[in-house]
Known about the structure:
By secondary structure, this protein is of the alpha+beta class. The chain is built from 10 helices and 10 strands.
Amino acid sequence: MDSLSQLALGTAVSLAVMNRRTAVWKAxxxxxxxxxxxDLDVLIDQGSAIHNMVLHRSESHALFWLTLFSLPFAAxxxxxxxxxxxxxxxxxxxxxxxxxxxxxxxxxxxxxxxALPFSNYPFGVGSVFIIDLFYTLPLIVGVVWVLxxxxxxxxxxxxxxxxxxxxxxxxxxxxxxxxxxxVTQIARASLSQQGIAVEHLLVTPTPFNTVLWRVxxxxxxxxxxxxxxxxDKQPTITFDRFPRGNALAAELxxxxxxxxxxxxxxxxxxxxxxxxxxxxxDLRMGQEPNYSFTFAxxxxxxxLLVLAEPEQIxxxxxxxxxxxxxxxxxxxxPLPPPR
Length: 339
C-alpha cells in the first residue's frame, strides 16, 4: 500500500495496543516510524531497475526477519523513554505494527516476499489497489480523534474511535476480497462462454476503488483484457485480445532480468519489440497499452545486444481522459477502455 496508508495503520495499531499506558504521542510516533520502516528498502539501489522492482518488499517485508527485529527495536524504545516496565507491551505493539505492514501489502497485486529466508515467493492477493482512500480514511479519522481527545473521558472515546477505524478498514479489505471472488466467478463464466482456455487468470481492482475490476486472462501466445463493474447490468465481461510476444522468449531466455520478471509476475507478462528494442512488461499493474513496469532489456543487433542496465519505460497516458473513463465505467456505463 501507499506510504500514507502504512503510516496511518502503524499509528492506529500502536495506539490500540498501548491503550494510554504511555503518552499518546509516544505510541503514535513509534507506530508511525515502525509502520514506515519496511518501505525504506526503496532507498537501496539493488543494481538495476528490474532488481529494484523485484527486490522491493523482500527481506524488509519478511515476517521472520521483522519478528527478530521487533524485540531490540522495542527495547530501544522502552529504554529511550524510561519505560522498561512496559517492554512487553512495547514489544507487542512494535511487532504487530511491523507485521501488519507486509500483510497489508500482500492484499495488493505487487508481490510481497513474506516467507524469506525460507521462500522468495511473492505473495499478492490483488483485492485492493495500492492507493484506496476508502481503506485509509477510517484509519486517519480514528488516529486524529485519539490525538485530539487524549485526556480523561474524551480520551476513552478517542480510543474507541481508533478501534472503530481499524475495524472499518479491515472490513473494507474483507469486502474487497469478497468482491474479487464474485468477479472471478463472473470472469470464468464469461471466458468459458467465449471459448477462451485460461492458463493464468488475474482479477484486480482498477485505481482507487473496489467497484470496477480489471480481468486479465493469459491464453497461449496472447492475453485477454476485460473490465467489470459491480454496477453493470449484466454479469458478463467483454474481452479484447492482445499478442503476448512468445516468439521473442527464445532470444531472451538467458537474460537474468527477464527470468526474474517472468517469475515475479507469475506468468502475467508480455514481450514485444519496439523501435529496435526488446521490452518486457508486467501485465498486472496498469492497463493496455499503459503499464507501470515496462523495461527495455535488449537491442536488435547482430548478435542481440543484452542491455547491462535495463531501462524502465515511463507510462504515457492522458490522466483526465483516463479518470473520466474510470468514473463513468465504474458507475456501469458500457464504455470501451481508452487505448
